[in-house]
């Protein structure tokens, strides 16, 4: 029997209206989990995708709220629960889906802050449903965390920044999804960008963490472009968009984490499309159509704020 999860990340899928017994209800749903990688460096974000499938003969209402993940670490021949610290953030997105018989809901999330809490070693994880909904859980998926001194030094520097100071707010923002998740923390975009560049200066990062940082800086440029456009300054908006596109172009996509939904590379391409929509709307429309044709599941996937 699996341990009861003590930590839930950004949202738990809850199926409502179940009246069957626990055994019967378990047969009504199928929960699967996909990891983009089975080996990551210490403090690397890990992209995962999950799927809820309705195997019953009736429609189910699924509330996309806090998908929960259970972690265990291998110690000798035993698997021991890993209790991650606290619930990060609040419910940022709630979307109810009616799932028809034999229908399914796909979800995607970037595990960022949680991965900084894992030391090098062998782990396994699964996505679970709470017992008060339609119960269901995926199979265990094993992965390895390799030591990386540069990543750990960078992460420790971020964590050490006092939370009452702008630098600490910038650290919190990056851990919890940053500019892509829309956290404010009382920072201006210029303050956030300055602190993130300072933290990254001279850091020896793994390709995965370096790509996330570069993507974050590009997202800051995108937000600056949108603010400039809102203010009616089209020339400045295009300058910021150009800077963001240059940052994305420097990312080595060969090291990106791939899923059926596209995962990290698709997220980077979506940011490129958003930036192109400012400078080249026609090109952006074509690239968006191409992306959706390559990853059709992404069209209906629920992409939750990273944790």
Describe this structure in words.
With 307 residues, the chain is an alpha+beta fold. It is built from ten helices and twelve strands. The strands form three sheets. The chain has a five-stranded mixed sheet with strand order 3-11-10-6-7, with no helix packed on it. A four-stranded mixed sheet has the order 2-4-9-12. Strands 1-5-8 form a three-stranded antiparallel sheet, with no helix packed on it. β6 (68-75) and β7 form a beta hairpin. α3 crosses α5 (189-200) and α6 runs parallel beside α8 (263-279). The radius of gyration is 20 Å and the shape is globular.
Which secondary structure elements does this structure contain, and how are they paired or packed?
Layout: E1 12-16, H1 22-26, E2 29-35, E3 39-41, E4 46-54, E5 60-65, E6 68-75, E7 78-82, E8 95-99, E9 104-111, E10 121-128, E11 141-146, H2 149-160, H3 166-175, H4 178-181, H5 189-200, H6 207-230, H7 234-249, H8 263-279, H9 281-294, H10 297-300, E12 302-303
Helix pairs in contact: 3-5, 5-6, 6-7, 6-8, 7-8, 8-9
């Amino acid at each position: 029997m699996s341990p009861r999860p003590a930590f839930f990340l950004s949202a738990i899928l809850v199926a409502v209206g179940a009246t069957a017994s626990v055994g019967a209800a378990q047969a009504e749903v199928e929960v699967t989990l996909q990891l983009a990688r089975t080996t990551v460096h210490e403090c690397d974000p890990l992209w995962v995708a999950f799927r809820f499938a309705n195997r019953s003969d009736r429609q189910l209402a699924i509330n996309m709220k806090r998908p929960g993940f259970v972690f265990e670490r291998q110690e000798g021949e035993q698997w021991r629960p890993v209790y991650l610290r606290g619930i990060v953030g609040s419910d940022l997105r709630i979307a109810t889906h009616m799932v028809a018989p034999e229908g399914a809901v796909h979800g995607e999330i970037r595990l960022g802050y949680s991965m900084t809490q894992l030391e090098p070693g062998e782990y396994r994880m699964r996505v679970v449903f709470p017992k008060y909904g339609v119960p269901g859980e995926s199979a265990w998926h094993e992965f390895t965390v390799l030591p990386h001194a540069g990543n750990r030094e960078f992460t420790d520097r971020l964590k050490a920044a006092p939370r009452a100071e702008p630098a600490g707010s910038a650290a919190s923002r990056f851990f919890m999804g940053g500019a892509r998740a829309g956290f404010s923390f009382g920072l201006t975009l210029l303050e956030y960008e300055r602190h993130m560049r300072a933290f990254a200066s001279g850091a020896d990062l793994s390709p995965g963490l370096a790509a996330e940082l570069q993507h974050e800086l590009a997202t800051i440029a995108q937000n600056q472009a949108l603010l400039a456009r809102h203010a009616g300054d089209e020339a400045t908006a295009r300058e910021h968009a150009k800077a963001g596109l240059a940052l994305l172009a420097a990312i080595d996509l060969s090291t990106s984490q791939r899923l059926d939904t596209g995962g990290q590379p698709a997220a980077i391409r979506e940011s490129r499309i958003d930036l192109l929509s400012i400078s080249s709307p026609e090109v952006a429309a074509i690239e968006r159509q191409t992306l959706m044709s390559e990853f059709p599941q992404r069209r209906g996937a629920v992409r939750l704020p990273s944790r």
